[in-house]
Amino acid sequence: MPTAEVSLPDDVDIEISQLVEEGEFINRDQAVEELLSLGVSAYTTDESPNQSPDEDLFTQVVDDQQDPAIRNESDDEHTL
User: Region Disordered: which residues (predicted)?
Assistant: First the structure.
Protein backbone atom coordinates (compact mmCIF):
# COMPACT_ATOMS: atom_id res chain seq x y z
CA MET A 1 0.00 0.00 0.00
CA PRO A 2 1.37 3.45 -0.87
CA THR A 3 2.19 5.77 1.99
CA ALA A 4 1.95 9.54 2.24
CA GLU A 5 3.16 12.07 4.77
CA VAL A 6 0.84 14.98 5.52
CA SER A 7 0.94 17.92 7.88
CA LEU A 8 -2.30 18.46 9.77
CA PRO A 9 -3.54 21.49 11.65
CA ASP A 10 -3.58 20.96 15.42
CA ASP A 11 -7.38 20.92 15.61
CA VAL A 12 -7.65 18.13 13.02
CA ASP A 13 -4.95 16.12 14.81
CA ILE A 14 -6.82 16.50 18.10
CA GLU A 15 -10.11 15.42 16.50
CA ILE A 16 -8.50 12.28 15.05
CA SER A 17 -6.96 11.45 18.43
CA GLN A 18 -10.33 11.91 20.13
CA LEU A 19 -12.05 9.59 17.63
CA VAL A 20 -9.46 6.90 18.32
CA GLU A 21 -9.77 7.38 22.11
CA GLU A 22 -13.58 7.14 21.86
CA GLY A 23 -13.24 3.79 20.09
CA GLU A 24 -14.48 4.94 16.70
CA PHE A 25 -11.30 3.50 15.17
CA ILE A 26 -8.88 0.80 16.28
CA ASN A 27 -5.84 3.03 15.87
CA ARG A 28 -4.67 6.29 14.36
CA ASP A 29 -3.62 4.70 11.04
CA GLN A 30 -7.08 3.21 10.53
CA ALA A 31 -8.71 6.54 11.41
CA VAL A 32 -6.62 8.51 8.92
CA GLU A 33 -7.10 5.90 6.18
CA GLU A 34 -10.88 5.70 6.59
CA LEU A 35 -11.38 9.44 6.98
CA LEU A 36 -9.31 10.13 3.85
CA SER A 37 -11.24 7.47 1.93
CA LEU A 38 -14.55 9.03 2.98
CA GLY A 39 -13.34 12.47 1.97
CA VAL A 40 -12.13 11.29 -1.43
CA SER A 41 -15.36 9.39 -2.13
CA ALA A 42 -17.43 12.44 -1.13
CA TYR A 43 -15.42 14.71 -3.42
CA THR A 44 -16.93 15.01 -6.89
CA THR A 45 -15.34 16.46 -9.97
CA ASP A 46 -18.48 17.06 -12.03
CA GLU A 47 -17.90 19.48 -14.86
CA SER A 48 -21.33 21.02 -14.34
CA PRO A 49 -21.81 23.13 -11.22
CA ASN A 50 -24.03 21.68 -8.52
CA GLN A 51 -27.52 23.11 -8.63
CA SER A 52 -29.68 23.39 -5.58
CA PRO A 53 -33.30 22.24 -5.77
CA ASP A 54 -34.33 25.91 -5.61
CA GLU A 55 -32.49 26.64 -8.86
CA ASP A 56 -34.20 23.73 -10.61
CA LEU A 57 -37.60 24.90 -9.36
CA PHE A 58 -36.96 28.47 -10.51
CA THR A 59 -35.85 27.30 -13.96
CA GLN A 60 -38.92 25.11 -14.33
CA VAL A 61 -41.28 27.94 -13.35
CA VAL A 62 -39.62 30.38 -15.76
CA ASP A 63 -39.67 27.82 -18.58
CA ASP A 64 -43.38 27.16 -18.01
CA GLN A 65 -44.35 30.83 -18.10
CA GLN A 66 -45.71 32.43 -21.24
CA ASP A 67 -45.28 36.04 -22.25
CA PRO A 68 -48.74 37.69 -22.16
CA ALA A 69 -47.66 40.03 -24.98
CA ILE A 70 -47.28 37.12 -27.36
CA ARG A 71 -50.49 36.69 -29.29
CA ASN A 72 -51.65 33.76 -31.25
CA GLU A 73 -52.48 35.14 -34.70
CA SER A 74 -55.36 32.72 -35.22
CA ASP A 75 -57.13 34.16 -32.16
CA ASP A 76 -56.41 37.77 -33.10
CA GLU A 77 -59.58 39.45 -34.33
CA HIS A 78 -57.81 42.67 -35.22
CA THR A 79 -55.62 42.29 -38.25
CA LEU A 80 -53.99 44.99 -40.25
Answer: 44-80
